[in-house]
Write a structure and sequence with these properties.
15 helices, mainly alpha, two-stranded antiparallel ribbon, globular, single chain
Length: 333
């Protein structure tokens, strides 16, 4: 009986190889922060970081919802127009309720409830047209994008809807105040991101989203209720838009046809930068958060340094989306 030397039985230790797919957005964010710190002394100040995070919170909350939609193989181009419509309708409702409920908290709560209801219904309309009528998500949300934008233009008569001074005073702390110096929009974004990550990675709904995005026919054969899951994804997107609007309205106290322009581009860019596949099948909410921060810091650095005109932010985000998709294709090949 022969004995195998002990050295031959040992399995060689596996070398650690960095996962570029996971670390890429984090490395990009770290390099961006380093660049900002080098070009501006005030970049890492508490005031500047708080300002960037507060402004990014609106897009961040919308992008969390977009992560579920895109991971399921869909897309929602209507989120910016939907936000403008929800904000305008919310202001109209609050102004009309002042004579009835007064300018206090009851009017603000009623306006917020209206915004959530409208957001839920708008998401449900998108979801129903996609799942029940069988229309492509791109076509449906392109159409509703125009509808919502036209409705806010009609309601505002092409101008600006301003919140009455009474409810505006009551509502203002929702954006400008917070807990321990952290504004409410940042706290709300953090809470939505944590809940979104848990739902995406730890629940059956999150797994079904990825399964449908990967192959909806296989998902149907696996007894997954595809239409129901897709509908829930678009309803969740609508609720995220409504929540972002609740935090946006007290900032300016107004809404106009220009509100939310290109928000859909920013949300989609954040999702793709974060590693979620544009064709569906895989999504990660924490990556979307990193993507939102990357876009926020890019805009902040451009404003601070004047390297590039602020009017070119949309062009830069478009380039980032194209590069991110090309990188994803490279990984699959």
């Amino acid at each position: 009986m022969s004995s195998v030397p002990l050295e031959q039985e040992r399995v060689p230790a596996r070398r650690w190889v960095p996962d570029v797919k996971t670390l890429g957005p984090l490395i990009a964010l770290a390099l961006l922060i380093l660049t900002g710190a080098l070009v501006s002394d005030g970049f890492l100040s508490a005031g500047n970081l708080t300002n960037v995070l507060s402004r990014s919170a609106f897009i961040g909350i919308i992008a969390v919802g977009a992560t579920f939609v895109i991971a399921s193989g869909g897309i929602d181009l209507s989120v910016g127009s939907m936000a403008a419509f929800v904000a305008g309708l919310m202001i109209v409702v609050m102004n009309s309720l002042v004579p009835v409920l007064g300018p206090g908290l009851a009017t603000v709560i009623a306006g917020m409830a209206c915004a959530l209801l409208v957001g839920l219904c708008a998401g449900a309309v998108n979801g129903a047209l996609i799942t029940k009528a069988g229309i492509e998500p791109f076509i449906v949300t392109l159409g509703t994008m125009g509808i919502f934008r036209s409705l806010i233009t009609y309601v505002s008569d092409g101008g600006t809807l301003s919140l009455a001074s009474g409810p505006r005073t009551v509502y203002r702390p929702v954006y400008f105040e917070g807990v321990l110096g952290i504004p409410w929009p940042i706290l709300a974004f953090a809470l939505v991101a944590v809940l979104g990550q848990i739902v995406m990675s730890q629940t059956a709904f999150g797994r079904h989203i990825s399964a449908i995005g990967s192959n909806d026919q296989v998902a149907r054969y696996s007894a997954i209720r595809v239409d129901r899951v897709q509908m829930m994804a678009y309803v969740l997107q609508g609720l995220c838009v409504a929540l972002a609007t609740l935090l946006y309205v007290p900032r300016l106290g107004s809404a106009s046809p220009a509100t939310g322009v290109l928000w859909e581009l920013e949300a989609i860019a954040a999702v793709i930068i974060g590693g979620t596949l544009l064709k569906g099948g895989y999504g990660r909410v924490w990556g979307t958060v990193v993507g939102v921060l990357i876009l926020g810091f890019i805009g902040n650095i451009l404003n601070i340094t004047n390297f590039v005109s602020n009017y070119l932010n949309g062009a830069i985000q478009g380039v980032i989306i194209i590069i991110a998709v090309l990188v994803q294709r490279g990984r699959r090949s």
